[in-house]
Amino acid sequence: MSEQWWFCLKHMRVEPDQGCPNKDRMGPYASEVEAADALKTAAERNKAWQAQDQDEDDD
After folding, report:
1. Is pTM, for the whole model, over 0.85?
2. Contact 56/30 with Cβ under 8 angstroms?
3. What is the superkingdom listed in this entry's lineage (predicted)?
4. Residue 29 in contact with residue 41, Cβ under 8 Å?
5. Dihedral sign computed on CA atoms, order 35, 26, 18, 4
6. Binning pLDDT at 50, 70 and 90, where does residue 25 land?
């Protein structure tokens, strides 16, 4: 099994599988780098979803 990484929202840092409870984390991610970008990725997805919702509302 490959290693998974998480971004801990409580401590604002990347953690391996053994870490805080999943309720306090985002993930899992395939790499430490992906986990480190978790907040940026979430913000980009939220922005895209908001734009999509706006486009649907305009129809």
Report:
1. no
2. no
3. Bacteria
4. no
5. negative
6. very high
